[in-house]
Structures are given as structure tokens and as C-alpha cells.
Amino acid sequence: MQVNDEWRDADISRTQVVAEGWCGENGVSWSSILQAPEPENPNPKSERESVGNLWINNDDGSVINVQLSQFKGRLQEIYVLFVDTKHPKRKLPETWTEVSREAANL
Q1: What is the distance between the alpha carbons of residues 51 and 19, in angstroms, rounded to a whole number?
Q2: pLDDT tens column, 28-57
Q3: Who contacts 3 (Cβ-Cβ below 8 Å, separation ≥6)?
Q4: Which of 11, 17, 86, 91 has the fewest CB atoms within 10 Å around its CB?
């Protein structure tokens, strides 16, 4: 959220995860649905958008992408995607060693 000027100061103190689960083949993606009693950002510039993306590069060459989306000023979903191009059917490991990260507002 820090990479998005519009969402940087949003109050997420009452935002809760209301559903979550694996959503990809071979257990490589995870989604959490979010809900708050009122919009975290009551004046969004667009009805639906990506709030931000985080790319985590690991020492084994795998990448974890975390995406946060909103709808009408409410945080809607956190989506996590694990990619290992050397071993495409590999599941998300229990641990990993991060070597770099990049946050972006796309």
C-alpha cells in the first residue's frame, strides 16, 4: 500500500480476512478475500484497481508475487502467486530465502 499514493494512509485496522484458500493448480497460488465495515479509502480515483504488487526474488530462483486489489474503495483481495521456472510443478515451500524485493503500483 505504501507504493500507492491514494492508499498510503488508508485505515486498515478493521479490515479482516473473511475467506481464503488455494486457487491454483499444484498449490502455487493463494487468495484471501478481505472485508471491512466501511471503505478503507472512501474516495478512490477508480472503481476497481490494483492497489499494489510486491515481487519477492528468492535465492533458489523462485519468485513470489503478492497482489492487493480494491473495489469501490474497499480492499477486496490479496492474491499470492509462487513461480519456479526451473520446477514448474513445485509447490510453495515452507521456507525460502529472500534476496530482493520490489514493490510497485501498476
Answers
A1: 19
A2: 888 999 999 999 998 888 899 999 999 999
A3: 52, 103, 104, 105
A4: 86
